[in-house]
């Protein structure tokens, strides 16, 4: 299956480098390029991209606002946003994930890692590496979240097995790693994850991670039982 990619970055040189890299892979296709957030939203609608590589800092409309607009549009429900940032974790990444972005990468990412990330995001599987999850938790989730926190009763719709698996997703484990931990088949682990996302109305695993910490299912600095 061909994955349609939209590049959104205000720096032509960076877009050019990503375009050459992405276009060199048989199952990826660059369908458009945007130099600001507003253009990114418009092109996501017109070009029907599967994945948007979104720079978080752009003129006219920043990547965070553009991400919110894309993920809030029901007509773009299948579009995944992968945030690009100068640093692996910066002050806007957590808000971007909460806004519906499916993950984030540093602009200095290795070519093979970028290609793999696009494929992973496109299929909605493991979206945040354990390293990225730890950074997200340590930088943001250990601090009080403004607004009304979600109570643990939100998780009442889950079975015990689904709660257990959501906790492991929050630690950054992939379906294969969850399956190995719980002695399940990878397809069974994936089914549990998908059911949990559906029940909790989470767009993808990134939002599942955030919800797991917001509800207190997993707490920063507290290791999950082996």
Task: Tell me briefly what this model is.
This protein is α/β, with parallel strands linked by helices and 226 residues long. Helices cover 48% and strands 12% of the residues. Helix 7 (160-170) crosses helix 10.
Can you describe what's shown?
- GO terms for molecular function: DNA binding.
- Residues 151-216 form the HTH luxR-type domain.
- The chain has helices at residues 12-23, 37-47, 63-72, 93-99, 111-123, 130-141, 160-170, 175-182, 186-199, 205-214; strands spanning 3-8, 28-34, 51-55, 80-85, 103-106.
- The protein has two domains: 3-138, Response regulator (Rossmann fold, 3-Layer(aba) Sandwich), CATH 3.40.50.2300; 148-215, Winged helix-like DNA-binding domain superfamily/Winged helix DNA-binding domain (Arc Repressor Mutant, subunit A, Orthogonal Bundle).
- Strands 2-1-3-4-5 form a five-stranded parallel beta sheet, sandwiched between helices.
- With 226 residues, the protein is of the alpha/beta class.
- The N and C termini lie far apart (37 Å).
- It is globular, with a radius of gyration of 17 Å.
- The mean pLDDT is 83.
Features:
alpha/beta; Rossmann fold; Arc Repressor Mutant, subunit A; 2 domains; 10 helices; globular
